[in-house]
């Protein structure tokens, strides 16, 4: 990626720079063009004017999307402001700005493709849809694909921390033949999100607890908040089998997904399992279980403190590696953390580490009553049981 490059917005069928800019993390000096809310308002009026005269959307949308994903993963694409970007350029840019290793980029591309193939085809409609993406943008691009397959047009609001994957997907859709007037990329500040929501017909919004509190409820809005994933460990369960089952749920994808397990709920004594699980997390080989690195100054240290600050008297950090270590190019990454919650008079289901989401592998292990286990599960979007039981996914 050219030092000092500017990632453009895509609106009204063309890539556009902006005077309002945000710097991306990392050492590339790359900046992101931000779209002011007044421009968003004007663009909705423009869309209403041109929509009646547009040709119909492609009939074979699934085929178009599969072609776009092939270009996304392998092609040389003209990404506005960045110029021609190869697949290797894309992976290098994600590593230098977002700290995502190329092996994870490859894995996540495959997940997007598999998810599209497996998903039922939706009925199409005439809605102008918005997809507002989170900091962990990449695999949430599946929501963009879903809305493209069903909507008259889609406006994408990328993360300001990692807009490159969203910008490349827009370029891939254009290469595959999606009409230019029916797709847009609107990087904005947090304050402009409400304007995008007001000016679209259907909205899919991703974010954490803070964003969830800031977004008003609408019948047309689907809010994907924290996953707060938990695993329910029955008594008895062989600790070795439990560790083999739990390590991927905690550590896969560098702990970056809302589906990762954050709480291990034990029906029996938690100490034996927690000790073995902590040792297994300490021994994970980077070649098989890569971690993402932090490109924001002090970001890794701040992330690690998000766990320490929520620990209460009696809680113990069982993992032994330093909380922050140097990654492959010297940039810091946060190692997996496992905390054994202590016994106390407080409500265990209300402990601040229960369901706590951080951008690295982390889990809290706790023994609770059947009643409290049910309460924790009820507050979790993703609930896992051992392989002999079917994993359950709860809908928001």
Automatic annotation (TrEMBL):
Domain of life, source organism: Bacteria
Gene Ontology molecular function: any one: oxidoreductase activity, acting on the aldehyde or oxo group of donors, NAD or NADP as acceptor
UniProtKB keywords: Oxidoreductase
UniProt cross-references to InterPro entries, sorted A to Z: Ald_DH/histidinol_DH, Ald_DH_C, Ald_DH_N
Keyword Oxidoreductase: yes
SUPFAM superfamilies associated with the record: ALDH-like
Protein name: Uncharacterized protein
Organism: Streptomyces griseoloalbus
């Amino acid at each position: 990626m050219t030092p000092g490059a500017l990632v453009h917005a895509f609106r009204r069928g063309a890539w556009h720079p902006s005077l309002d800019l945000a710097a991306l993390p990392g050492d590339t000096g790359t900046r992101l063009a931000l779209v002011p809310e007044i421009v968003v308002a004007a663009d909705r009026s423009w869309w209403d004017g041109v929509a009646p005269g547009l040709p119909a959307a492609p009939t074979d949308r699934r085929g178009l999307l599969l072609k776009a994903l092939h270009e996304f993963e392998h092609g040389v694409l003209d990404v506005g402001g960045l110029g021609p970007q190869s697949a290797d350029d894309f992976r290098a840019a994600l590593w230098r700005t977002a700290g995502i290793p190329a092996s994870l980029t490859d894995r996540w591309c495959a997940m997007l493709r598999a998810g599209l193939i497996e998903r039922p085809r939706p009925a199409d409609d005439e809605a102008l849809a918005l997809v507002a993406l989170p900091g962990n943008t990449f695999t949430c691009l599946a929501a963009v694909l879903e809305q493209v397959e069903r909507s008259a047009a889609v406006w994408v609001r990328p993360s300001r921390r990692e807009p490159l994957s969203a910008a490349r997907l827009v370029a891939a859709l254009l290469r595959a033949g999606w009409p230019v007037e029916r797709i847009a990329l609107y990087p904005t500040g947090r304050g402009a999100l409400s304007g995008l929501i007001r000016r679209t017909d259907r909205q899919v919004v991703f974010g954490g607890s803070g964003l969830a509190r800031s977004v008003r409820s609408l019948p047309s809005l689907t809010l994907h908040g924290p996953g707060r994933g938990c695993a329910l460990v029955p008594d008895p369960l062989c600790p070795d089998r439990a560790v083999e089952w739990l390590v991927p749920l905690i550590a896969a994808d560098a702990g970056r997904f809302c589906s990762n397990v954050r709480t291990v709920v034990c029906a029996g004594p938690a100490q034996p399992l927690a000790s073995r699980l902590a040792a297994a997390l300490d021994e994970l080989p980077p070649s098989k279980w890569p971690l993402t690195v932090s490109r924001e100054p002090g970001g890794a240290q701040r992330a690690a403190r998000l766990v320490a600050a929520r620990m209460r008297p009696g809680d113990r950090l069982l993992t032994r590696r330093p909380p922050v270590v140097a990654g492959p190019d010297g940039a810091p990454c946060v190692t997996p953390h496992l905390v054994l919650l202590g016994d106390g008079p407080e409500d265990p289901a209300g402990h601040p580490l229960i369901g706590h989401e951080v951008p690295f592998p982390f889990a809290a292990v706790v023994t609770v009553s059947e009643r409290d286990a049910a309460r924790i599960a009820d507050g979790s979007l993703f609930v896992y049981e051992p392989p002999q039981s079917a994993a359950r996914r709860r809908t928001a």
